[in-house]
């Protein structure tokens, strides 16, 4: 009797797109071939629908930005949309504009919807989640006009929404509010936190969003980032890790790598 893998990826190899699962030597394609991690092109680990992103959803991050905010108590979630052109897979390259003074990573738990959700209750919300993956939701702070209305140049840049490497089945994550996450830049830890410190929990976010819009399979909710964001530069290697979910690696490259 075959079993459904709890951790899956989507990769491009030899002219085709494959499903894959972890293997001691790297990864194993659905057709049985075993490959090293660097032999494939990693794609976002699921077919991505609407991308919904949260801002200011960690209490410590709100405190970190307290000098720039007028928040008080538990406000309604700050949510914005991102376009498909911003998506990038594991081990991809993100362009860092030379004229930006402050570009930072954001390690986030990404929640992938598995079945239609409309007007669901908080108590039922997690039953609509297919699984979880890691996101690095880059931001260029130079272009930020208002924390409550992140504009497109801050958050919707090509290659600025990195997802992967694995989609972890929801059945293997009994409590999405008990996950440690951290970011390393060139091997040095610069950000640490816990999903326990979210202002709005995963279940609350699914219920809130489904109260006014229908969530469909493949839609993804980026749940915000904890404190500890710092500027990163071209050449930096950024690793975002969530315990039990995976480690997402990404490299920043200069304008010339994109012919700019």
Overview of this structure, please?
The protein starts with 6 loop residues before the first strand and ends in a 7-residue tail after the last strand. Strands 1, 2, 3, 4, 5, 6, 7, 8, 11, 12, 14 and 17 form a twelve-stranded mixed beta sheet that branches. It has a five-stranded mixed beta sheet with strand order 9-19-18-15-16, with no helix packed on it. It is built from four helices and 19 strands. The chain has helices at 59-64, 122-125, 152-155, 202-210; strands spanning 7-13, 16-23, 26-29, 34-35, 41-43, 51-55, 78-82, 87-88, 92-95, 103-104, 107-113, 129-137, 139-140, 161-169, 180-185, 188-194, 220-222, 237-242, 246-253. The chain is globular and about 55 Å long. A hairpin with a 2-residue loop joins strand 15 and strand 16 (188-194).
* Helix fraction by DSSP (H/I, runs of at least 4): under 10%
Query: What is the number of E strands?
Result: 19
Category from helices, strands and their pairing: mainly beta
What's the number of helices?
4
Q: List low-pLDDT spans.
A: none
Brief overview:
The chain has 260 residues and is mainly beta. Helices cover 9% and strands 38% of the residues.
Please supply descriptive tags for the structure shown above.
single chain, 260 residues, 12-stranded mixed sheet, 5-stranded mixed sheet, globular
Ordered list of secondary-structure elements with their pairings:
Elements: E1 7-13, E2 16-23, E3 26-29, E4 34-35, E5 41-43, E6 51-55, H1 59-64, E7 78-82, E8 87-88, E9 92-95, E10 103-104, E11 107-113, H2 122-125, E12 129-137, E13 139-140, H3 152-155, E14 161-169, E15 180-185, E16 188-194, H4 202-210, E17 220-222, E18 237-242, E19 246-253
Parallel strand pairs: 6-17, 8-14, 9-19
Antiparallel strand pairs: 1-2, 1-5, 1-14, 2-3, 3-4, 6-7, 10-13, 11-12, 11-17, 12-14, 15-16, 15-18, 18-19
